[in-house]
Write a structure and sequence with these properties.
Strand order of the largest sheet of chain B: 1-3-2-4-5
Strand order of the largest sheet of chain A: 15-12-14-13-17-18-16
CATH class of the largest domain in chain A: Alpha Beta
Structural class of chain A: alpha+beta
Distance between the termini of chain A: 19 Å
Number of strands of chain A: 18
Helix content of chain B: 40-55%
Largest sheet of chain A: 7 strands, antiparallel
Shape of chain B: globular
Strand content of chain A: 15-25%
CATH class of the largest domain in chain B: Mainly Alpha
CATH architecture of the largest domain in chain A: 2-Layer Sandwich
Number of domains of chain B: 3
Number of helices of chain A: 15
Shape of chain A: globular
Number of helices of chain B: 20
Strand content of chain B: 5-15%
Helix content of chain A: 25-40%
Number of strands of chain B: 9
Oligomer: heterodimer
CATH architecture of the largest domain in chain B: Up-down Bundle
Distance between the termini of chain B: 46 Å
Order of helices and strands of chain B: HHHHHHHHHEEHHEHEHEHEHHEHHEHEH
Largest interface: A-B, 49 and 40 residues
Radius of gyration of chain A: 23 Å
Largest sheet of chain B: 5 strands, parallel
CATH topology of the largest domain in chain A: Uridine Diphospho-n-acetylenolpyruvylglucosamine Reductase, domain 3
CATH topology of the largest domain in chain B: Glutathione S-transferase Yfyf (Class Pi), Chain A, domain 2
Structural class of chain B: alpha/beta
Chain lengths: 507, 407
């Protein structure tokens, strides 16, 4: 049976005020509306349905624990929210309840110079953490597109990916251990082992991974001990042009096989992407007309390593009929990597007019061999829906290295899709979800995964989770969800996990 | 009044918000460009958000609040608390990718500081008000009373031997706050201009300099005072106005120009002209000043009018000064905590925390002296220093220069 939820009444609000203080509880409509909106396309025409009843900003693990105890006791849904930069509606409430905003948990708790770990509260922003570590000569080598605003906690919740994961891994590789408040309010510590700072252990199950990418469905991560790196001596961005997508794609393979340990990222931009860049924005650094495809790379290491590796890289590019795009493009586009994309006026209507839009970013994980086929099918699907519904626009595809520490094998096939939310109605929103689902189905047909890092939490994609995880994994998820969260209070409805409460799943 | 004069740079801002009514569609589109922005760089750069961690207290929050009302969710009666949590420092505007990459191209530069002024005033007009409104009203009244007392306002010029009033190409503009609260800064400015051999006149009782009026629907009073100053400067035959208070500089450069069009004289900030005098050899910093100095960028200069070079150049040329430069873009994230107009009166605790963090940053860098460019920063940080018992000297850059020049 799916549990029935209690209403947040004045008594509950008073109890919450008792836990976190008056200034950290709000029921103002606009405050709740802000917490229902996210950075990706969102059903604005049904905004009201997604409003939480109350917004709470706790300041400690203990306060989070008290809030969850209260919510569990009264059976009130709780949706954790960090910076709201998630790209799959993970933090959008589906059943109202308490919106638990973790951003006041923003302190660095300990910096262990000798063992190179840093322990933080999870509401801390990545750029702020990076600045702090820089002062002590260390590097926080985690670089999602949302780096200047997202929080470590949000990144843990979504299982986030890093642009430079080829040298330093992604969030699952950088988190050593965590403090987690379970739906019942119990505070636990999970890590590679029982020791807070040990990175590799064989003691017991690897439970840490349960709380990475869980999208707030299993509890709230309030603290984390992270791996920090020495600051690299050299950073070298280099971009290369090709006169066709095929040449770029083939050269990507050569780059992977060169086994350059300095290569943090290689990203292949297809023709549609290059055309999108050429559209209008002031950030665009002009490319020669014959450039149809681009590979952006960045390398980190010692000066000697990066210099030697760049010689190999440039030779490979020449051999692949590519050419260096110069310092201005290479350094400029890398320096502006967090800033220049996702502007709200890049979308175009069928007649070519500017269409104020949000960006949907599809992010399937796709094997190298399948990239061209999936790319073709995705563009074709978007063309079909664009002509049918006149609200989508294709911003092109980027294929980023996705394998942690190794720039080969699988890639994020990342398509930018513009969508004007202000024109949404049920028909158009349904069309969007349908398009999103069909794109994910293509990824699955080609032995890929629905999502590399955004999380399949939006209806449409979520329907496909049982299909992708059909060989027992989804059954396990249902069992785990029900065991951890008997009253289904944590971000209920996400991942389709209401099914866990309909009847008990058995293996 | 707001319809007759362009107080705001966007037309939609001139249409007032009313209880029970949807905001205008033009405003909703302007809001949506921030709602739809995936970057949200306006969060972490905001000194208020850094303290409260409440995303409602950011440009994203302000725009999304209004957009939600346009979509039928929310009402203006609840906006007061949210819209008082803004320093109007302009950090979100300079950090915004819409401003950086589309601002000129599409004319969609972020104008949150104007939006905040507009909403506060609309709330007052609609009878809703906001927390701390009475304090802000008192501040405006106090300014109006002060400018009627000429002797008090011009007392700072006593003994300087400078021309006050009358026709002159070059006018030194020292408004009420600096004239009464930061007298040493005003005197240092006059002494240095005199030492450089410049023929100038001190403006006799400037009237403007009260941005709070724009927050409480007293645009009429702001305009009346601004117009008086403009008329007087024209009468004086002014070709160049040298401004000592960065807030006044912001009013001249960003608001007066919008209201009156291109001004009939050049407006220069004091450190810009002093640096020019140093470059021309007309001012020589000769006395050694043994201080370990950090420079604090005032928001009205660094973020709102793009003046950040001259104070650094001056400090770098003063013998004996050990100057550690914090990059001006890093300082987009900082503020003294006072804000450009209303903030401190409404949120004294947050203002204190922001100021305390600023002083600690300077101390962490080994600074013993925090050089300031703004009398409001000096005033607020002095209070913070006293309350927090942090050991750091606070002094205006031009006073350090005056010591080195020997005036």
């Amino acid at each position: 049976m799916i549990p029935r939820y209690a209403t947040v009444d004045q008594g509950i609000v008073r109890d919450l005020v008792g836990i976190v203080g008056e200034h950290n509880v709000t029921t103002a409509l606009h405050q709740r509306a802000i917490r229902a909106a996210v950075a990706c396309p969102f059903p604005i025409h049904r905004w009201e349905e997604h409003l939480p009843d109350v917004v709470v900003l706790p300041g400690s693990t203990e306060e989070v624990s008290e809030i969850l105890k209260l919510a569990n006791r009264h059976r009130i849904p709780v949706v954790p929210r960090a910076a709201g930069t998630g790209l799959n509606d993970g933090a959008v409430p589906l059943r109202k309840g308490i919106l638990l905003d973790i951003k006041r948990l923003d302190q660095v708790l300990e910096l262990d110079d000798a063992n190179m770990t840093v322990t933080i509260q999870t509401g801390i922003n990545n750029q702020e953490l990076s600045r702090t570590l820089k002062r002590y000569g260390f590097w926080w080598p985690f670089d999602p597109a949302s780096f200047p605003v997202s929080t470590v906690g949000g990144n843990i919740g979504t299982g986030a990916w890093s642009l430079i994961g080829g040298v330093s891994g992604h969030i699952p590789d950088l988190v050593i251990s965590m403090t987690v408040v379970l739906p019942t309010g119990r505070i636990i510590e999970v890590g590679e082992s029982g020791a807070r700072k040990i990175r590799k252990s064989s003691t017991g199950y690897r439970l840490k991974d349960l709380f990475i990418g869980h999208q707030g469905t299993l509890g709230v991560v309030t603290e984390a001990t992270l791996d920090m790196f020495p600051r690299p001596e050299a950073e070298f961005p280099a971009s290369f042009g090709y006169d066709s997508f095929e040449k770029g794609w083939k050269n990507l393979r050569s780059m992977s096989r060169a086994f350059l340990r300095t290569m943090a990222m290689a990203a292949l931009l297809d023709e549609e992407r290059v055309e999108c860049l050429r559209r209008d924005d002031e950030a665009y650094i002009a490319l020669p007309k014959n450039v149809k495809s681009v590979i952006v790379t960045v390398s980190y290491g010692t000066e000697a390593e990066v210099t030697a590796a760049s010689d190999v890289l440039f030779k490979l590019v020449r051999g692949g009929d590519g050419f260096y795009l110069g310092e201005e493009f290479s350094e400029g586009s890398w320096a502006g990597r967090h800033e220049t994309l996702q502007l709200p006026l890049h979308g175009r209507t069928l007649s070519g007019d500017v269409m104020p839009s949000k960006w949907h970013v599809a992010d399937a994980a796709v094997l190298y061999s399948e990239l061209p086929a999936v790319r073709e099918k995705w563009h074709s699907l978007v063309r079909e829906y664009r002509h049918k519904h006149a609200i989508f626009d294709d911003g092109g595809i980027i294929m980023h290295t996705n394998n942690p520490f190794k720039p080969w094998g699988d890639y994020i096939l990342s398509m930018d899709l513009f969508m004007p939310e202000t024109e949404l109605d049920d028909v158009k929103w349904k069309a969007f979800l349908e398009l999103d689902r069909k794109m994910s189905e293509v990824a699955l047909q080609h032995n890929g995964s629905i999502t590399a890092c955004h999380g399949a939490t939006r209806p449409g994609q979520a329907e496909l989770i049982p299909i992708e995880l059909r060989n027992g994994m989804y059954d396990m998820m249902q069992i785990i969800k029900r065991a951890f969260d008997p009253n289904n209070i944590m971000n209920p409805g996400k991942f389709g996990l209401d099914s866990a409460y309909v009847e008990e799943t058995k293996l | 009044m707001t319809e007759q004069y362009r107080i705001y740079s966007k037309d939609a801002y001139h249409i007032p918000l009313n209880k029970g009514q949807k905001p205008p569609a033009e405003l909703a589109l302007d809001n949506y460009l921030t709602v739809a922005c995936r970057h949200k760089f306006c969060l972490e750069v905001c000194p208020v958000y850094q303290v409260t961690r409440n995303e409602a207290h950011t440009s994203y929050g302000f725009h999304t609040s209004l957009f939600s009302i346009w979509e039928g969710i929310g009402n203006i009666e609840e906006l007061g608390d949210t819209f008082t949590h803004c320093l109007q420092c302009g950090a979100c505007e300079v950090r915004c990718p819409n401003t950086l990459f589309m601002g000129d191209f599409y004319r969609v530069t972020l104008t949150t500081t104007e939006l905040v002024r507009k909403v506060r005033s609309d709330l007052v007009r609609a009878g809703v008000g906001f927390p701390g409104l009475d304090e802000v009203k008192k501040e405006v009244e106090s300014h109006l009373q002060a400018i009627s007392k000429r002797d008090d306002l011009m007392k700072w010029t006593e003994g300087l031997g400078v021309q006050v009033g009358g026709r002159c190409d070059l006018v030194l503009y020292v408004s009420r706050f600096t004239a009464t609260q930061a007298t040493e800064t005003a005197r240092a400015a006059a002494k240095l201009l005199k030492k450089a051999g410049l023929n100038f006149s001190v403006m006799d009782v400037p009237q403007a300099g009260i941005g709070e009026a724009l927050d409480i629907a007293r645009e009429d009073k702001f305009l009346e005072l601004a117009k008086k100053d403009m008329d007087k400067l024209r009468e004086m035959g002014t070709e160049m106005v040298v401004v000592v208070d960065p807030h006044d500089y912001f009013f001249f450069k960003r608001i007066f120009t919008r209201i009156f069009g291109e001004l009939p004289f050049k407006v220069v900030f004091i450190t810009d002209i002093l640096w020019q005098m140093m470059e021309e050899g007309r001012l020589v910093a000769q006395n050694e000043i043994h201080k370990r100095v950090i420079y604090h960028d005032p928001c009205t200069l660094n973020k709102l009018t793009n003046v950040w070079e001259s104070p650094r150049k001056i400090l770098s040329k003063i013998p004996g000064v050990q100057f550690t430069d914090e990059h001006h873009i890093d300082q987009w994230y900082y503020c003294c905590g006072n804000g450009v107009s209303t903030f401190k009166k409404v949120n004294p605790e947050i203002a204190f925390t922001i100021g305390q963090r600023r002083l600690r940053r300077a101390l962490d860098l080994g600074g013993k002296t925090l050089a300031l460019g703004c009398p409001h920063c000096w005033d607020h940080l002095t209070e913070v220093k006293t309350k927090s018992k942090l050991e750091i000297e606070l002094i205006n850059v031009i006073e350090i220069l005056a010591q080195s020049v020997g005036v």
